[in-house]
Amino acid sequence: MSTHLTNSLRALRFARNEMTQAELAARLGVSRQTVIAIEQGRYSPTLEMAFQMARIFEVPLEQVFQYRPPGCET
Amino acid sequence: MIFLLISVVGVTVYLVTVALRAREAALSEVAWVMPMLWTLGLAMAAGIGGDLVVSALRKGETALDVRDLEIRRYGLYVGHFFGVIGGVTALGLTMLDAEKFFIAHALYAGFVVSALVSAVVRLRAYRRGLPR
Q1: Which residues on chain B are in Cβ contact (under 8 Å) with A37?
Q2: Whole-structure pTM over 0.80, yes or no?
Q3: E-strand spans in chain A?
Q4: N or C: which end of chain B has fewer CB within 10 A?
Q5: Do B62 and A43 touch (CB under 8 A)?
């Protein structure tokens, strides 16, 4: 039951001094399992958490998450 | 997983106890109250203990985050449906003047199935994600 959201979290973490999932989880105030689930597309974060992530990586929200509805290949 | 295990162990112990007693008396005359109270009480205590162990194992991380709460809520929501079925069945049995044994067990079955379904649904949500 994956979501229609894709994300660049993995790339952003590595670009950010290879931030670990545990570090990101601690900064977001969630468990590492939740970060893993988001990265793998098994969980859509709340809007607030999505903005928190964008702020942590200092990028616009669209650079962290991309919405790809079914049937849309681009 | 721990809650699924607790539910299964609890109901198995109870059913075996009642089945053993039913060999010597009619099913509706079996002394079921104390075994039910004990298994429900111990299952509740084990559930609380399990919660504490899980929290301790997650030390250093947030105990319950927004995803955990969403999954918990979803599990309770789905499980609740089966609790209601147990309640409605018990109500029907009461209207039909059924034996207390069957009324109580309709309720008990509702609790148990509700707990089992809730645990399975939560486990599935953790592994495969919440349904959209």
Answers
A1: 67, 129
A2: no
A3: 5-7, 65-67
A4: C
A5: no
